[in-house]
User: What shape does this take?
Amino acid sequence: MKWGLAAFLGIATAVLIAFAWLQSGGLTRHAMFSAGTPEEAVQALMSEIRAHNYQQAYASLDRSSDTDLASFIREMAGSDGSLRTYSSLQTAEVSPLHADHDEAVVRLRMNWSSALGSLDDVRDLRVRRDGSVWRVVWPKPAFATVPPQVVSVNYLSWDVIGHNTSQTWGAQDVDSPKVRITSMNAISRPGRVVIVGEVENEDTVPAYLNVNATLLKADGSPIEEEGSFDLISHVLLPKQVSPYRIDFPGVRMDAVKSVRMDARALLVPASADPVIAVTDQVVSKDGLNRTVLKGELVNQSGRPVNIAQVLAAYYDNFGKVIWVSDGYVDQALMPQVPVAFAVDIPDDIAARLKNYRVIVNHYSRSSN
Amino acid sequence: MKRIPENGFARFTRLSVLALLWVLPGWAKAAELQVPAVVEAGRGFSIPVKGSGQATFYLVGPDHVVKGHVSLGSDVQIQSSDVRSAGLYQVLVCDDSTSSCTSATFEVKAAPPAHLSFFLHPSRVPVSTRDSIDATAFVFDQYFNLVWTPAAVDFRITPASGASFSRRGSTRNGVAWMRMDSTPHEGRVQVTAVLGNVEEARVIQQVAAEACGLRMKAVGSGNKVSLETDPVRDCSGNALPDGTIVSFTKIDKLGKSTVDTPIKKGIARVQFSVHGRAQISVACGVVLGNEVALNGGL
Assistant: This one.
């Protein structure tokens, strides 16, 4: 009886210890330190990053990695209120590119989920054999820094004093900004109808604008109404032009007789700062052989832009807008520091593409 | 007399009295009330009532009902406060002893103009734009009755620069309006509607129209080029306001670069790095400017 109780307590303790080990990621750690293949090494590293165990992940890297812990965490977890700080690693796909006895190159496709949708990050990584296990060689991220300086910003900003509701009928008020849809093109895409085009703020004051479209049947009755949501630059400064895209999923083009467009603008306070340059834009193929428009964003102001969205309009030979695509940048735009971006272009659009234009939407957490 | 304001109960009372008036003529006594056909709003008057004894008096207006007691053979005094609203009124006098009633109808017309409600649209307008300014004036008397009698309203236009001028419009159904072109110079334009000694002023902002003859010049330094527009003006020579976006586009061997930059002190500036031959263009809204070709080696 006495031995039976001792045996029971011993077994129970062992089970609880094993359970705690599993809970704390022991299996993953075991896999990491016994990564038998380059792919396993990368997957184990991604498991640690997914669990926000950055120190463990950093400890598993090959010694020849020239990054330090702070840079590694900053790269993976994000900083400065960037979109990466609001993201989490969802999936990681690893495919081998090259391998020999001691070293391999793998392609890693990380998919990050964020409040603004999913973001892909594709990298080619070196993986080295370290005894019986493989370890990832993580390159040092290139965080450009700008020397301390004072940047004078004296761009215009607009404030609005609205109509006082206690005033009598007919009292003076200020009108909403005048905006104009300068182009509209309805195109058929697989499983949906898409309206693309451009809209201009023709006024001398900033506008907050929304573009809505209603698809109409032959008898004039509406099929569906949709808005441009985030595929537009909502705040337009005077004479600024924004592309827009409105998707109608599940609608077939042959059911549509006409489209009713509606651009609504509100007068809002706004600032002409920051100015963001879009440099070195080229259409090329990315690591996954997709056609992308890539380039760099340079924040020319003196304060960080936390989240930036790239909106691109594509034109055919006749100057007609044939597609609008967007992409969020998961790094903050620090002053004067170029940050790379890439937005997808469907292959059939790329084949007809003659020209393109890029604008940047931005969000800054701090205010003046 | 007791004045009953137009609340739910008063409306019920008024409707009841109107219903009474509808059925009364059959047995109402024909002792006619002598009322003026037309009365000016806010002007009291009296109505002589023949007979003897006591009677109940009702005045049913468009927005209120007055009830009181009168002695037959004397005058019923209608207070100025009881006839402030323009419209049709009915007077009803019912003899308390015989229950016979007499009624009459009169109209209250608006008093002389005392207020103008003035709408000027839009609040901003590009210069030299045809039929772009609408001015509409509604004429009211001191009790805010719309004055239907035709009256001449002067619209005095005072531009920021140049001579003032005026347009005259006659009211139709209480409303006078005019439409005019914006003038060629930007700035504040005051439009004042004047009717007798009544004035109401509004301000419209004339702003620069689309850019015209947009030009830039380039100054190179190393592999950088600084671009600067001439002062950006419209076709009438007005400077486009600061904050207006000017787009610069450079194409060189590294690809295309674009900067949307606001005008500052009348001029838009930008700096690009240039690699090899480059072509640079400028635009403001839908207006294209000149192009600059750089052959590298700045």
Chain A touches chain B through 38 residues (CB under 8 Å). The two ends of chain A are 77 Å apart (CA to CA). The first strand of chain A starts at residue 88 and ends at 99.
